[in-house]
Write a structure and sequence with these properties.
Layout: H1 2-17, H2 19-48, E1 51-57, E2 72-76, H3 82-91, E3 96-100, H4 106-109, E4 114-117, H5 123-144, H6 149-155, E5 163-164, E6 170-171, H7 173-210, H8 213-218, H9 223-259, H10 264-278, H11 284-294, H12 298-326, H13 334-355, H14 362-367, H15 374-381, H16 388-416, H17 426-434
Parallel strand pairs: 1-2, 1-3
Antiparallel strand pairs: 3-4, 5-6
Helix pairs in contact: 1-9, 2-9, 7-9, 7-11, 7-12, 7-13, 7-15, 9-12, 9-16, 12-15, 12-16, 13-15, 16-17
């Protein structure tokens, strides 16, 4: 085991001292925060632009329904033809011109209005225009039928179905959204970690193989110890980089907030106010989302996330290392990458299209026990309530498979690491496993 610790230390130090590793450790958070700051800045500029919209209302009654907003300003043009109004848009004096013609019936008005602009308008503008016209037209139609529109609005009710398990635990629609977000984020994070750092292990093996350094190392270290050392050392370097990203992103976000005068507390208050307005003047939706967050099994999620994160990464890392040992360059790795990547892609599809719809169905349960898909699928199922024994069984299968995979990968690693000048095939890999 002394050799193993030395290999782990060597791999870790080599990775964290690598120039590209150091550059990406500091550059990635800068790019990440910079993109979000740029998007926020561009969004604020876009929201500050007020669009002047002229209305030519030949009905004489609809123009009053249009109210100015933070981004739209409506101006009614009287005693002017639509052709004259369109010239204002051509000259750039207004953003667009809304033409509401006079029709024989209100039903015809629903398809007769036209919005003229130099460029395609945003969906929000068209939606606001259509809602304003529809509100007046629907009210007018009800009046023509001698129906009191206000009374209908007063009689209209919304249905809010309460949700509760047979054991008496109350749930809500927000619970499903919160569980989906947490499960999806955990599964996707593991997916990206495997892809990024699995490739790092594979490139490291190829570099040592092509530089012939491995020939010296392999003479005094067993292949399985060398394989495990590379996997664990690179994994620790990846965890170090990930922790550094979290810290740097937090610091940079705070700096950007101070420099650009962004108040996170004010933003949160604004979001809560928007939710309150959207829910009809009550904060029930906000409180429901907050209760859903509090109701998540956070301790269970964190523990199982770490276990599946480690187990899933180690399993795939052994495959990446075996592929790196079998080839001489990255170009030759492509033929072996599809069988490795496909289970990961399949787990993402199963997670987002099956677990969300039926987290306790047969398909979801089967894929949460298959070791090549369980790290993603089970992590997405856990927020929906999975018995502990199922989680323990899935983790056990995952780690047992990893141990078995290390032995198989070590056999490929032992032979392939000394093979040069030949592009291996699947038939060759099977032969190496028999040695």
């Amino acid at each position: 085991m002394n050799h193993l610790s030395l290999i782990i230390k060597r791999e870790y130090i080599n990775k964290v001292r690598n120039k590209s590793f150091i550059i990406m450790t500091f550059l990635s958070p800068l790019i990440f925060v910079g993109i979000f700051a740029l998007v926020g800045y561009l969004s604020s500029i876009n929201n500050d632009n007020i669009r002047d919209i002229s209305i030519v209302d030949q009905t004489g009654v609809l123009a009053n329904n249009f109210k100015d907003t933070a981004t739209e300003k409506y101006t009614v043009l009287n005693n002017i033809s639509i052709d004259e109004a369109k010239l204002l848009g051509v000259d750039g004096s207004v953003y667009g011109v809304l033409h509401i013609p006079k029709t024989a019936t209100l039903e015809e008005l629903s398809t007769a209005t036209t919005f003229y602009s130099k460029e395609s308008p945003s969906l929000s503008i068209i939606r606001d225009i259509e809602n304003s016209i529809a509100s007046h037209v629907n009210t007018a139609i009800l009046k023509q039928a001698n129906i009191d529109a206000d009374k209908i609005k007063a009689l209209r009710i919304s249905v809010d179905t309460k949700q509760e398990t047979f054991e008496g635990k109350k749930t809500s629609k927000a619970d499903a959204i919160a569980k989906l977000i947490f499960g999806g984020a955990a599964g996707y994070l593991l997916f990206m970690f495997i892809i990024i750092y699995g490739n790092m292990i594979m490139r490291s093996v190829i570099e040592e193989k092509t530089s012939r350094i491995i020939e010296i190392i392999i003479s005094s270290v067993k292949p399985i110890k060398l394989l495990l050392g590379k996997i664990i050392g690179t994994s620790l370097a990846g965890v170090t980089q990930f922790i550094a990203w979290v810290i740097l992103i937090s610091i940079l976000t705070s700096v950007v907030s101070v420099v650009f005068g962004i108040d996170p507390g004010a933003a949160q208050s604004q979001q809560q106010e928007m939710i309150t307005q959207a829910s009809g003047g009550s904060s029930s939706l906000f409180l429901e989302a907050y209760r859903a967050y509090e109701g998540l099994p956070l301790t269970n999620l964190v523990i199982m996330f770490l276990l599946f994160f480690v187990g899933g990464y180690l399993l795939y890392a052994s495959l990446y290392a075996a592929i790196g040992a079998a080839v001489d360059n990255e170009t030759d790795t492509q033929q072996f990458m599809i069988p490795v990547i496909m289970p990961l892609i399949l787990s993402i599809y199963v997670g987002f299209f099956t677990v969300i719809e039926n987290p306790h169905g047969m398909v979801s349960q089967v894929f949460s026990y298959i070791p090549f898909t369980s790290p993603v699928v089970m992590l997405m199922r856990i927020p929906f309530g999975v018995p502990i024994w199922q989680q323990v069984l899935s983790v056990t299968i995952l780690f047992v498979t990893f141990i078995g995979m290390v032995f198989f990968a070590a056999k490929i690693y032992r032979v392939g690491i000394l093979m040069y000048g030949k592009k291996p095939t699947y038939k060759d890999l099977i032969k190496w496993l028999k040695y």
